[in-house]
Amino acid sequence: MEKQWWQDALRVIQYNLQIQDTDRMVPEEIAAKACEAGANAVVINAGGIYAWYRSRIPFHHINEYLPAKGNLLEDLIRCCHALGIKVIGRFDFSKTDDVVYLQHPEWFVKDSEGKPVCYGSGRMGSWSLLMSTCINGGYRNEAFAVKVMEEALDCLEIDGIFYNAPHMEECYCENCRRKYRSLYAKELPENKKDWEPDWQTQCLKDNMKLLYRTVKERRKEVPVILYYGTYREDGTGLPENLDLRYETADMVCTEAQDILSAGKKRLPFSWKPTLNMKLGQYAGEAPRPFGIIHSCPGMDWRHTGLPAAEYEFWLSQIPAANGQLWHSLTGFDAVITDKRLLRVMKKVTRRAALSDSLMQGAVSAARTLLLWNAGVSELGFTQGLMDCHIPFDIMDIWHMDLDRMKTYKTVILPGGFPTDSAVTDILGKYVEAGGSLYAEKTDAAITQALAGLLGIRPEACTGHDISAAYGVLEPEGEALNQALMETKYIPVKGELLYVSAEKEAVKLMTFIPPFAPPDGVGAPPERAGLPVTHTGIPLLLENRVGKGRVLTGFFELSRLMLEIGLEDQKQLFGNCISYLNGEETEFDGALLPEGIFAYPYRAGEKFLVHLVNGVGSRPLKNTVECHHLELAVRGWKEGKVSRVFSALEGAPVSWEENDGWIRIRLESLLVWDIIVME
């Protein structure tokens, strides 16, 4: 099959157009600025809430600010094409005018009391009310959306389609009630928590299947882009099954909003863009996922930009994590008043173009695989892996694959990850074949098969809300003692699993029980002595199985790294993974400072290491330049290395080969660089 344009590396700028800026739009200037910035595709408002062309579809609200003569959108498309820039049309069928509701109330979302849902009703000015449309109603299906897509594909030379806000809102209209009854043979519950787990997913799938088919029947070559889900920061979300998303899309995207306006206590994880891109990587022929980065510090301040240092750090993670960069701007260059964001946007986009050329055919050099079910434990291990500079990839619950698993030296099994017989069987075969497994287990749901894998007896009991307790490394745990030799007690708290080890299993760290209840830890100091200074209760247990080994933590190390983050907790985790990886790792970033993210790749005869600098208190207000950074690489090719250089920032690099390692010293790092070895 002939390669399509969208299968090449893309750098996208989305211009979120405001209708009151219409008269300031000069197509030639917008296209030229996009080209100057290094973009090769743009996303432009096309239809849905507003039609940006002279639509003839009833109820399609035409932008009243469009010029009386000519066709602004067609001119913009033509100017972009003249500069080799593809144009992706943005369509949003999630809302429409109140006057449409008055004529077709059956098209709209109804709350549990049967009332329509109004969006932004408190907006001042001479605006119509916007009403939320139902995903199962006619507006988002054959009665309106299909007709709009057919018209747009016929009259506009758009190269791609992007559906904004396609997901289902909570709705209790008759359309939804009938469909629920048909699917599940029961009434739609009045409490959303009682809905069938796949209800909303099924509704989205049905709607997108219709719109996807409409696009392909009209113009088969036009790709469709849809959002994919990632995670919730409280760990209560469900992982996205990308198989379902690709049934109705050719490319996928997700947002990594850096919402600073929510306050410092609610800052998103510093590695959010990185994790989003890892979750969107998909086996097969699918393009790399798009990472959408909004330029603003929150939609409530969308007319200004993120602090320049924060913005550059946030943007740079997308290409470094092997994603495709997608900028989201409010307006276009001529109306954007914060010129700093434009400067950063252009800088990173141009560097992304160079990165794209280097990354052709690149594959991850990670030797560690994190199993993913979107829980708190997974987020904690992500924190630990990023802080310890341990490269990792992700395998979600929908794609448990033994053959792929065997390509990694170490697999991490998070706490709470489903371990049914199929999963336990895969993990057992992986370890028996020589793999290393790090498992976190704090609940007492233990099958005989899992107990055998972990090296424990099935009888176990849980300890809840443990505090004022410690772990102590045993002599057998000497391999985990790096950088911990000057301390004895490693703080632990939270959930604990008390287990009995089988005789062949080795205790590497044991439990020191609480010295006091929470209300007695501070006073009196005379009673702060430890009542028990040693137990045989394992906190870290090693079990040999076949050619491999299992290292199990029976306490919440992942949560400790996420919520507390003491150096010793992070160091212990890093030591565990280094111990399990042994001599099979190709990258060592242990000497890099925390706050610098590392992403190693193999690219043919080259080895690439992206470094992204986020050192400093967030939100970053200034870039903290780092100096004399040391990292090491080995084993990716035979023969001598001929050259090592800094591809983006041009910083001096020195290197030497020693004991099979290429030890590299980078003199300075500002924000984002790629170290190239060839």
From TrEMBL:
<protein>
    <recommendedName>
        <fullName>Beta-galactosidase trimerisation domain-containing protein</fullName>
    </recommendedName>
</protein>
<dbReference type="InterPro" id="IPR029062">
    <property type="entry name" value="Class_I_gatase-like"/>
</dbReference>
<dbReference type="InterPro" id="IPR017853">
    <property type="entry name" value="GH"/>
</dbReference>
<dbReference type="Pfam" id="PF14871">
    <property type="entry name" value="GHL6"/>
</dbReference>
<dbReference type="InterPro" id="IPR028212">
    <property type="entry name" value="GHL6"/>
</dbReference>
